[in-house]
Amino acid sequence: xxxxxxxxxxxxxxxxxxxxxxxxxxxxxxxxxxxxxxxxxxxxxxxxxxxxxxxxxxxxxxxxxxxxxxxxxxxxxxxxxxxxxxxxxxxxxxxxxxxxxxxxxxxxxxxxxxxxxxxxxxxxxxxxxxxxxxxxxxxxxxxxxxxxxxxxxxxxxxxxxxxxxxxxxxxxxxxxxxxxxxxxxxxxxxxxxxxxxxxxxxxxxxxxxxxxxxxxxxxxxxxxxxxxxxxxxxxxxxxxxxxxxxxxxxxxxxxxxxxxxxxxxxxxxxxxxxxxxxxxxxxxxxxxxxxxxxxxxxxxxxxxxxxxxxxxxxxxxxxxxxx
Amino acid sequence: xxxxxxxxxxxxxxxxxxxxxxxxxxxxxxxxxxxxxxxxxxxxxxxxxxxxxxxxxxxxxxxxxxxxxxxxxxxxxxxxxxxxxxxxxxxxxxxxxxxxxxxxxxxxxxxxxxxxxxxxxxxxxxxxxxxxxxxxxxxxxxxxxxxxxxxxxxxxxxxxxxxxxxxxxxxxxxxxxxxxxxxxxxxxxxxxxxxxxxxxxxxxxxxxxxxxxxxxxxxxxxxxxxxxxxxxxxxxxxxxxxxxxxxxxxxxxxxxxxxxxxxxxxxxxxxxxxxxxxxxxxxxxxxxxxxxxxxxxxxxxxxxxxxxxxxxxxxxxxxxxxxxxxxxxxxxxxxxxxxxxxxxxxxxxxxxxxxxxxxxxxxxxxxxxxxxxxxxxxxxxxxxxxxxxxxxxxxxxxxxxxxxxxxxxxxxxxxx
Lengths: 323, 416
Description:
The complex is a heterodimer of chains A (323) and B (416). Chain A is 70% helix and 0% strand.
């Protein structure tokens, strides 16, 4: 940025092109440069304030007030502190929603990452058609979620779904994928894993390409092949990429809403309700919106995502600059 | 690779977290301003299926021209419209005319979004009282019905004939159950409906609920439990498919359209599709426990006039609504929407033009508003517990009795 924010006065400076290398000279440049720097920052700041800080503030405000439809319109909802959070925590849906969120996120992450890693290693061997096949694996990622979720919903239909027809052909009893409280969560996890695999595959594959072939050659000379090579070399060398893949995956998975909503509406009987669908259900899912509790659940999600983010930083710091 | 400072990283992670969660409940308060310019009147409707070239939009434009103004029309998905209307009211830029699903009227009225007929001078005298009921609360009327629909049982004549069932014999729950058993014995499927976990599920369950004699104020009454048990037993016996738990009314219709089912509970709006079925169909009223037609809930929209800062806009809005709800225009609109007209005069004309509608006109006559019985904004809370209980019972996670007992205590807590 320093090269473009130079004021006319700086042009007279003896070695402007080298200013990056001479911090002392930059300080001497005076206020104009700093103002220009701020001016360049301003659009970003305005963007962050308008699209991140303000909605977040509104969400927090919603969750701390007693909003009825009337007070929502009139904007005079009384401040009630943490009552919405208490209401949410006492709600019989709370414990199942938290449990499902944890199970959904953990299972999705483990499976997506595991399968994505296996595929990345597989495609890293550069056989014929590997590029084509890899491209095909990206399809789930490119499809709009409404398309893939609806397709899954049709395939898993109890009566006419292709999955049950297939099970029937194998002589197995049909499964009520979306309509049984025992299966609904598993079904949405399966769909979510399918959608998440390409993301993991792409990131891990590019991570693999960053590992120098010489390392493998050296390892081969030392007799490390197959599993040993993967566990001793590939996996540790991929650790930074893996960490960021998992963190991004976590953030994406925590907020997954469309897949679950389209496939099961969080049901039957809350059996696939996560915090994200519950938040929507409260805020928008019934004829009478409950903005306060809905926002409270949304904020719990934010806190959860933040907590995991901090854990990630902790881990990174402990690894001590392995990046 | 350059290592980022911890501070930057915390910021980045915080940002990622925000992106994660702000998608769930971020009530955007920025709404496009609607029709503030004098001479331009904004109309919002829940008919996004109609585009600029449709008869509906042409009618809107014509009514605007007749009133000497231009009409700006926006079609929203019906589930979106409530929140859009609330947000717009909060921002002080409500549309001039708002067409909403009837159970939403009491919610919007409670919010103070709508004007009463006293303020906006709309004439509702021609409308059928049971239809108007959904738009009334606290002795005030908040709009005019533009059309009504309700539920009945479509049947597949070939399937019934093959099973030896006379559709006219199905007049109460016992005869319906007997018919379903015969159909099952003949190797066909019995009945399909929608029990999805949304308002749609409650809408479909209400004819059976009310037909048992149950009341929405007591969800755990023996009658209410009997209604849930009726549905649950159908699933257990295989008379209804397990997929009903996730069926919308559209997917349920698709099941019926496969030709495998004897009965389907569906609405007036499917009449157009019924003609494309490729098999002979008929329609009977949904039976009550002890016989006779059960009261089905009224569906369909209300035309309302939201409160505006400039009260002088009401006069023109009133002209627009009067135009939309005049007998001739109602007839045209309700034919397009496949609805039953809300006035006896227009209904008579509809039946004269299409005798098939007679059964629907009778069904609409027997129907009642969901928010009626002075329930108003209590209805949505009760309804939510009702659809949850039905889902819990159908999916086998609770017995009908346990599900309804819990629903009653939850509904009582929510509406106290």
